[in-house]
Specification:
With 184 residues, this protein is an alpha+beta fold. The chain has a single domain (14-154), classed as 3-Layer(aba) Sandwich (Glutaredoxin). Helix content is 23%, strand content 22%. The strands form 2 sheets. It has a 7-stranded mixed beta sheet. Strands 6-7 form a two-stranded antiparallel ribbon. The radius of gyration is 16 Å and the shape is globular.
Length: 184
């Protein structure tokens, strides 16, 4: 597996997942990078299920999933937990520190190979940093950002960067949809 590098093909992966609507009998269907061919993919890593900052990020992305879908983008979350742990967390109501219903799958990177390939694995702890990657419809990695464990990511910024990438143009600092692109 190659190491993730912006401007290069995204490292390939296949992982078991917990998807919306899964049950204990159906959980574990594989999810692969090729499943997202022809679409934009927001791939994000988080440290562990049933933690404190993680659900704020995951539910924020899920609550705004229609905005991602509206610009032809999919979302996939990944941690080193099993698909069964993911399912239990999804089946736990938000009021009880769970995720509740999600609009995208959570993938299981038990082997830690995918987190390692994307450069977010903390080897000595065996968990991933908060890495977020945007992969274009051709499978090229276009954006990468990594946060420390205690800082949540911004859904607004993720959407803004995705929309900027989709323009194909030169976007100045703090560019937002509807603002002019740079011309040279």
């Amino acid at each position: 597996m190659s190491l993730a590098k912006v401007g290069q093909p995204a490292p390939d992966f296949t992982m078991k997942s917990a998807k919306p609507g899964d049950t204990a009998k159906t959980v574990g269907s594989p999810v692969s990078l090729s499943d997202y061919s022809g679409k934009w993919l927001v791939l994000f890593f988080y440290p562990l299920d049933f933690t404190f900052v993680c659900p704020t990020e995951i539910t924020a992305l899920s609550d705004r999933f229609d905005e991602f879908a509206g610009i032809d983008a999919e979302v996939l979350g990944v941690s080193i937990d099993s698909q069964f742990s993911h399912l239990a967390w999804i089946n736990t109501p938000r009021e009880q520190h769970g995720l509740g219903t999600l609009n995208f799958p959570l993938a299981s990177d038990l082997t830690k190979e995918v987190a390692r390939a994307y450069g977010v694995l903390i080897e000595e702890a065996g968990i991933a940093l908060r890495g977020l990657f945007i992969i274009d419809p051709n499978g090229l990695l276009q954006y990468a950002v990594v946060n420390s464990l205690n800082i949540g990511r911004s859904t607004d910024e993720t959407l803004r960067v995705l929309q900027a990438l989709q323009t194909g143009g030169l976007c100045p600092s703090d560019w937002k949809p509807g603002k002019p692109l740079l011309t040279v």
